[in-house]
């Protein structure tokens, strides 16, 4: 069988060498991380939640807890993971620190293959609000409590380990050191050295190479081509920058305020810089990296002012304000203290209502004194014809407003967000989950 390639990122993932993994879902279909399935409500829901239920289909190779952690950690802080098998299917419950991180992870990993052509991720929001982890081992882990006991290795796990040729050479002295506060970067580097020598020794043995393939490939190694002289182990640190680069903008129409409002739908924008010598490009700094990733996910390749804008992570970690005397022409602005940030409150409900641009806008904070006709008139005065309008049946403060197309809706959101409706009421505009 060909060596599996990790597809879920542009960079190879490191696979902590799991002494207990086997090439199939565990036989004990009732076990859930040293507990029982009946102790866990593994039902799912549509509403975004910080706990994700992940099913791994077509599991031809083992997917360890460490691999799961590294996959989900790209999108935010992982608090706890529990793995188990139910109905002969390997599953995992992953708890992120916030619902928006879980939403981002679901969007980024859903239907992706962990390895080439197999181990497909199916992800849903769990009904659980938190996970109760008893042990830190290869089946479950609480990353907020590294002092939990490891529990004991089952007979089945011990036998499985002993039947895989050469696997013992890949097991760290303490296979659970990652759970007990070891630095992930140094743990990774030291284990790579052990893997290199073990892999090179096994390379000439095709049986060993096939057996070790799923353990080596997340490092970017191909067992068929290994030798002591040509090992080239690559590992790139995950991009954790809160800054994105937006390109292919319409330089005659785009302003810093417009960028702040549009990109502010997906996070709290701290600074915006339109590049002085290349004004169709801009740098946007968010308050945290997860928000930058949300913007990238939802706004890359979106049509705005007749152009497909491109959004990518920046090599910078912050946007510098111009020094005194440096030409800038007002193209750099600081919004750190803006009152228009949508996510200032920890755990803001706005995180649960983040959607890609669409033709239908979600309006909120509407006073009871403002009618449908009045709102339509306001949009018309701003230059936007309302195609359809609908108040929420049980809440007059919210409504759906349909524009002609997505591009028009983007412009309308920028123009109408924070529009004054009454003395102490300003309109809040975001993209809707669905149409009218």
From TrEMBL:
> In the UniProt record, does the keyword Membrane occur?
no
Q: Spell out the InterPro entries in the cross-references.
A: HnRNP-L/PTB, HNRNPL_RRM, Nucleotide-bd_a/b_plait_sf, PTBP1-like_RRM2, RBD_domain_sf, RRM_dom
- Phosphoprotein: present as a keyword of the record? yes
Residue ranges of the RRM domain?
242-316, 359-434
Gene Ontology terms for molecular function: RNA binding
| CDD domains named in the record | RRM2_PTBP1_like, RRM3_PTBP1_like, RRM4_PTBP1_like
> Keywords of this protein's UniProt record, alphabetized?
Phosphoprotein, Repeat, RNA-binding
Q: Which GO terms describe its cellular component?
A: nucleus
Any single GO BP term: mRNA processing
What's the name of the protein?
Answer: CRE-PTB-1 protein
Species of provenance = Caenorhabditis remanei (Caenorhabditis vulgaris)
Show the taxonomic lineage: Eukaryota, Metazoa, Ecdysozoa, Nematoda, Chromadorea
């Amino acid at each position: 069988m060909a060596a599996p390639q990790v597809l879920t990122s542009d960079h190879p993932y490191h696979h902590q060498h799991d002494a207990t993994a086997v090439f199939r879902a565990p036989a004990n279909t009732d076990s859930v991380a040293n507990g029982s399935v009946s102790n866990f409500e593994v039902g799912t829901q549509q509403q975004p939640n910080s706990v994700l239920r992940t099913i791994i289909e077509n599991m031809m190779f083992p997917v360890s807890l460490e691999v799961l952690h590294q996959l989900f950690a790209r999108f935010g802080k992982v608090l706890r993971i529990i793995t188990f098998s139910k109905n002969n299917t390997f599953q995992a419950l992953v708890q992120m620190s916030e619902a928006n991180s879980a939403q981002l992870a679901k969007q980024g990993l859903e239907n992706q293959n962990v390895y080439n052509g197999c181990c497909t991720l199916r992800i849903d929001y769990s009904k659980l609000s938190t996970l109760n982890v008893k042990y830190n081992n290869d089946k479950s882990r609480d990353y907020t409590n590294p002092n939990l006991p490891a529990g004991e290795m089952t007979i089945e796990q011990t036998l499985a380990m002993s039947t895989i040729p050469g696997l013992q050479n890949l097991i760290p002295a303490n296979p659970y050191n990652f759970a007990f506060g070891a630095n992930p970067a140094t743990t990774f580097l030291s284990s790579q050295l052990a893997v290199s020598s073990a892999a090179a020794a096994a390379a000439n043995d095709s049986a060993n190479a096939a057996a070790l393939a799923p353990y080596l490939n997340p490092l970017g190694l191909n067992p068929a081509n290994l030798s002591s002289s040509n090992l080239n182990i690559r590992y790139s640190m995950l991009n954790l920058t809160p800054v994105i680069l937006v390109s292919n903008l319409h330089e005659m129409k785009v302003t810093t305020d417009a960028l702040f409002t549009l990109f502010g739908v997906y996070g709290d924008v701290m600074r915006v810089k339109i590049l002085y010598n290349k004004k169709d490009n801009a740098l946007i700094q968010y308050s945290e990296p997860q928000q930058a990733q949300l913007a990238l996910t939802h706004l890359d390749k979106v049509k705005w002012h007749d152009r497909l804008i491109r959004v990518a992570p920046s090599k910078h970690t912050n946007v510098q304000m111009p020094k005194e005397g440096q030409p800038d022409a007002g193209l750099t602005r600081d919004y750190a203290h803006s009152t228009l940030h949508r996510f200032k409150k920890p755990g803001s409900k706005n995180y649960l209502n983040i959607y890609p641009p669409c033709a239908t806008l979600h309006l909120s904070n509407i006073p009871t004194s403002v009618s449908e006709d009045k709102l339509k008139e306001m949009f018309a005065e701003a230059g936007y014809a309302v195609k359809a309008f609908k108040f929420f049946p049980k809440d007059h403060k919210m409504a759906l407003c349909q524009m002609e197309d997505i591009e028009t809706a983007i412009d309308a959101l920028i123009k109408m967000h924070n529009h004054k409706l009454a003395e102490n009421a300003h309109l809040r505009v975001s993209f809707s989950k669905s149409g009218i």
